[in-house]
Write a structure and sequence with these properties.
Layout lengths: L1 E5 L2 H18 L4 E4 L6 H12 L9 E4 L1 E3 L10 H13 L6 E2 L8 H14 L5 E4 L21 E4 L2 H7 L13 E4 L2 H5 L3 E6 L5 H9 L17 E6 L9 H8 L9
Parallel strand pairs: 1-10, 2-3, 2-6, 3-5, 6-9, 9-10
Antiparallel strand pairs: 4-8, 7-8
Helix pairs in contact: 1-2, 2-3
Pfam families: Glucosamine_iso (PF01182)
Protein name: Glucosamine-6-phosphate deaminase
Catalytic activity: alpha-D-glucosamine 6-phosphate + H2O = beta-D-fructose 6-phosphate + NH4(+)
């Protein structure tokens, strides 16, 4: 996989936003897979700035959710639907009709999972999927030991992930749901291009295991090694445990092959 080491989170955001802009210029109706959490915010901010400056037309663009909490009431500010609308759809001026996401409040959650997998396929598939990574190597909410062939499904969150996410619920871990709908690893691998952004020293071990370790269910993100076009963008802190850091700096310095292989 390509590993691009950038100075800081802002530089990573600018780099990935540029890749999205290039994609939309080639394919105006591209389907963008979006992640939530604090890590991708610099990407969305840089992309919104480009849109406001008239640098790209997003009128036909579409976005797809990576995951969703189960059981939060409609309109809850920390549901991932609300977060994506607030941080991506509204700043980019997209229509809510351009948004695809699973129904975390469905009476039949399993049916909602299956329906979302079908909806992604009917939409033509995800062109570029933005990913973050957990400190334990999870992507989406595919926790350690998730099947590498898994499809969209309901998952139980580990206590570690619930503690990590408590900051979005006022620091109260008891308010964090126990279950989520997540695209499975197999579903994620269906995207044409995977772009993982990781920043901070706390992600260094997970990044090293993902990039340089074996493909193993204990590190779900390591499945990116199986993808024909995966790009990992990391700041210096997140790259600090990479044995091949100097090689990556020389090989991919600011010039990943965004347009495919």
């Amino acid at each position: 996989m390509e590993v691009v080491i950038v100075p800081d989170a802002a530089a990573g955001g600018e780099l990935i936003a540029g890749a999205v802009v290039d994609l939309l210029r080639r394919k105006p109706d591209a389907l963008l897979g979006v992640a939530t959490g604090s890590t991708p915010i610099p990407v969305y901010e840089a992309l919104a700035a480009t849109v406001r400056a008239g640098g790209v037309d997003v009128s036909q663009a579409r976005v797809a959710q990576l995951d969703e909490y189960v059981g939060l009431p409609a309109g809850h500010p920390e549901s991932y639907r609300s977060v994506v609308l607030r941080e991506v759809v509204e700043p980019l001026g997209l229509s809510p009709d351009a948004f695809l996401g699973p129904d975390g409040a469905a009476h039949d959650v399993q049916a909602a999972c299956e329906a979302y997998d079908k909806a992604l396929a009917w939409a033509g598939g995800v062109d570029l999927q933005l990913l973050g990574i957990g400190t334990d190597g999870h992507i989406g909410f595919n926790e350690p030991c998730s099947s590498l062939a898994s499809r969209t499904r309901i998952k139980t969150l580990t206590e570690r992930t619930r503690r990590d996410n408590a900051r979005f619920f006022g620091g109260d871990v008891d308010q964090v749901p126990h279950h989520v709908i997540t695209q499975g690893i197999g579903t994620i691998l269906d995207a044409r291009h995977l772009v993982l952004l990781a920043t901070g020293e706390g992600k260094a071990d997970a990044v090293a295991a993902t990039v340089e370790g074996p493909v193993a269910a204990i590190v779900p993100a390591s499945a990116l090694q199986l993808h024909p076009h995966a790009t990992v963008v990391v700041d210096e802190a997140a790259a600090s445990k990479l044995k091949l850091a100097d090689y990556f700096r020389q090989t991919y310095a600011g010039k990943p092959s965004w347009q495919g292989i």
